User: Fold this.
Amino acid sequence: IYIFDESETEKFRNLDIDIIYISGGNTFATLDKIRKANFAKDIKKYIEKGVTYIGGSCGAHIVTKNIEHLLELDDNYIGIKDYNALGVFDGVIIPHCKSKDYNPDLREKIYNKLLEDKKYNVYKLTNDESLIVTETGIVKS
Assistant:
């Protein structure tokens, strides 16, 4: 098990690994750290080589097309202006839907607005659901 340290990025390049896991947390701060560590290309390369990527909430957002819709849900205290995420997953995700702890009405409003905009494929998930992406398609479980 390797725990990424953005101050020693070189230690985490070209490893023989099976899984990358990025947990929940502040999406803007996490994306900012990945960018500052110049590690986005490495994550994409690992995924292209067949490494399984698992993202929990924030970690799921990191590989999507864009995170701008999270401005209403997450604190952009970092002040990033480029909301493009890694773009590995074709779409955006609204997690924690229907959870009373995560403002479900706002999440539903954001989901509907994203659907109206028709800019991205949009997926909403409850805390009990996940998306599994394979070469043959996307399965919601």
Summary: The chain has a mean pLDDT of 92. The chain is about 25% helix and 15% strand. The two ends are 27 Å apart (CA to CA).
